[in-house]
Design goal:
- The strands form 3 sheets. A 4-stranded antiparallel β-sheet has the order 1-4-8-6. Strands 2-10-5-7 form a 4-stranded antiparallel β-sheet. The chain has a two-stranded antiparallel sheet with strand order 3-9.
- The protein is mainly β.
- Helices cover 4% and strands 36% of the residues.
- The relative contact order is 0.24.
- The protein has 1 helix and 10 strands, in the order E-E-E-E-E-H-E-E-E-E-E.
Amino acid sequence: MDLEIDLRLLDPRYGSSFPLPAVATSGAAAIDLRAAVDAPLHLDPGSCVLIPSGIAIHIGNPGFAALLLPRSGLGHRGLVLGNGIGLIDSDYQGEIRMSCWNRGENTISIEPGDRIAQLLVIPVATPVFRIVDSFADTTGRGQQGFGHSGTR
C-alpha cells in the first residue's frame, strides 16, 4: 500500500552527498535514516546522543504513524535507540532526530551520512473505550501476567 507523505529536506547534502530517503530494496519495510552530522561522531560506551536526520515529514493522516527503529546490524554491535522505539505522530512536522545509545563495550564512530536508524510507517487504530464493570468473555489466561506460562 502506497501512502503519500510530505518530506522536507533540511540538510542540503540530500540529493548530492546523501541519497534521497527511500526503501533500499523492493521488499524493504522501512526507510533508512541517515546521520546528518557535520563531522564524525564518536560515541563512547554508555553514552547517548541526539542525532539529526536532516529531514522532516508530515504524515498528515491520523490513520498512520511512523516508528523509529534501530538497524539490526548496528544494534548487534551496540548502537541502539536510547528510547527503544521512537514514535512520530501524524501531526508532527519537525526534524526527525534519533536518540542513539551505545550499549556496547567499544566506541562507535558515526560518519556523516551513515544509515543509523529506520523509519517504518504503520496504520493506527484509534480506540474508542467502552467502560465496563467486568469483561463479558473470560479467557484461559485471564489476569495472569509476567511469567505465567513458565520459562521453558
